[in-house]
Amino acid sequence: MFAAASACLALAQPPPPVAAAGTGDGVRTTSTAFRTGGPATIAPARHVRTLPASTEQLPATVPWRNDEEVPLDQFLTESQTRAFVVLHDGKLVTERYFLGTTKETPLPSWSVAKSMAGLLVGQAIRERRLTLNTRLVDILPWLEVTGRRSQGYNKITVRDLLDMTSGIDAPEDYDLASGAEGTIAMLLSPDLRQYVQARRDMVGEPGEKFEYLSFNTQLLALVLQKAFGKRYVDAFTEGLWRPAGAEFPATWDQDLRGVARGFCCLNAAARDLARLGLLVLDANGSRAAPVSRAWRRRLLTPQPHMDGGWGYSTAFWHPEGAKAGTRSADATAIGIMGQYIYINTRTDTVIVKMSSHGIEQDERETFRAMRSIANSWAP
After folding, report:
1. What is the Cα 183 distance to its own chain's centre?
2. What is the DSSP code string of 36-48?
3. What pLDDT digit, counting tens, does each position of 19-50 carry?
4. HEC profile for 5-41?
5. pLDDT surpassing 80 at residue 51
6. How confident is the model at residue 271 (pLDDT cuts 50, 70, 90)?
7. How far apart (Å, rounded) are the C-alpha atoms in residues 131 and 122?
8. Rounded distance, CA 333 to CA 156, Å?
9. For residue 32, what are the contacts with CB-CB under 8 A and spacing of at least 6?
10. Of 29, 139, 340, 375, whose CB is crowded by the most CB atoms within 10 A?
């Protein structure tokens, strides 16, 4: 699923402070950032969603490596957990923090941020700003390929970017030694528009094969920015963050031009990530709902092209027992080094687990442990 490299571990640490950087639209921000630009600071919601305390208890044990039942504390320790939040029926069952983390600490979500793009696509479609069949180059004509070079690129649709079937030649590589290519290069790029424009070669036809690429979500973030007519971070703030009732400030890293790194780089408190998960559970038929029932149904239904035994849809993963076209009761956002927003619609459960674990270590086992906790409340 994710390419592995130890170089990425160093980047999991909080970045150093830098001077204010321009955002490209006259706004300036001062906070922490990667080496290439200042982040957008995201304020808490004016109306914070209350998380009432629950009197329920978690299971004493969970399945872990080799299907062995182990104490919950052992699972959390061995998977190097930094924050663990469990909500059931909208109530806070537990929140636990480790390694110097507190409930206010903004934690790097890494590719969990991709799932926010997935939810925003649903909003853009409902508002008739996009369709799944909208071509990338119809929204961003400056990316259109002319001549004979990589003509398939012009066929790429929102669906292809959303479900990782674009066919673009953009390796998911976390090795610093790869130089100007790979995901690390995109993470550090000072100009993301220039970065994506320089990479329009293809390795396959759009829609034919699943290949997980952070590059796809960066393109999708640019599409959403244009479709909504505002900065990507503002679209996220207005469409998801405020409706979720976020309690603490967050940040989203940008390049030097103020373009958000939509494929990653939302840094937020675990409680607020759990509130974002509640938006999926709260999906309804109201036009004001951040997530519609139809979009949640798509999110829970693995798309035809799967990654081995893993299902994928709308930037959410289905690691266990997934069947293409068959709706699941649960799914999870996943970020490297053990970041999760797990949702279970059957038991009305959200679990957020933020970690400093291996690049893609124990993901299937962690999903199984979270599912067992959620299923402990099954009717």
Report:
1. 15
2. T-PPEEEPPPSSP
3. 233 323 222 222 334 455 689 999 999 999 99
4. CCHHHHHCCCCCECCCEECCCCCEECCECCCCCCCEE
5. yes
6. very high
7. 9
8. 24
9. 14, 15, 16, 17, 18, 39, 251
10. 340
Residue type, 240: L
List the domain boundaries for the chain.
Answer: 11-131+230-375
Output Rg (C-alpha) for the chain, integer angstroms. 20
Question: Which residue, among 312, 116, 130, has the nearest Cα to 209 in the 3D structure?
Answer: 312
Rounded CA separation 224/114 (Å): 12
Confidence band (pLDDT; 50, 70, 90) for 4? very low
Confidence class of residue 376 from pLDDT cuts 50, 70 and 90? very high
From the CB of residue 194, how many other CB atoms can be counted at a distance below 10 Å?
Answer: 13
> CATH: 3.40.50.1980, 3.40.50.2020, 3.30.470.20, 3.40.710.10. Which one for 11-131+230-375?
3.40.710.10
62, 75 Cβ separation under 8 angstroms: yes
In this prediction the pTM is 0.91
Cα dihedral: 287, 289, 290, 292 (round 10): -70
Measured CA to CA, the distance from residue 205 to residue 100 in angstroms comes to 47
How far apart (Å, rounded) are the C-alpha atoms in residues 8 and 337? 9
CA-CA distance, 106 to 31, in Å (whole number)? Answer: 12
Name the H helices within the chain.
Answer: 7-11, 72-78, 112-126, 136-139, 158-162, 182-188, 192-197, 214-228, 232-236, 242-244, 270-281, 293-299, 363-375
What tokens does 120 get? Answer: 């925003």
Q: What Å distances lie between residue 319 and 120, 254, 323, 328, 330, CA to CA?
A: 23, 30, 10, 11, 10
Residue 168 structure tokens: 């673009």
pLDDT tens per residue across span 306-365 = 887 899 999 999 987 889 999 999 999 999 999 999 999 999 999 999 999 988 889 999
- DSSP-based three-state secondary structure for 333: strand
Rounded CA-CA distance 379/375 in Å is 9
Using alpha carbons, select from 156, 183, 181, 180 the residue that is nearest to residue 167.
156
| Res 308: pLDDT | 77
Tokens at residue 74, please?
């052992």
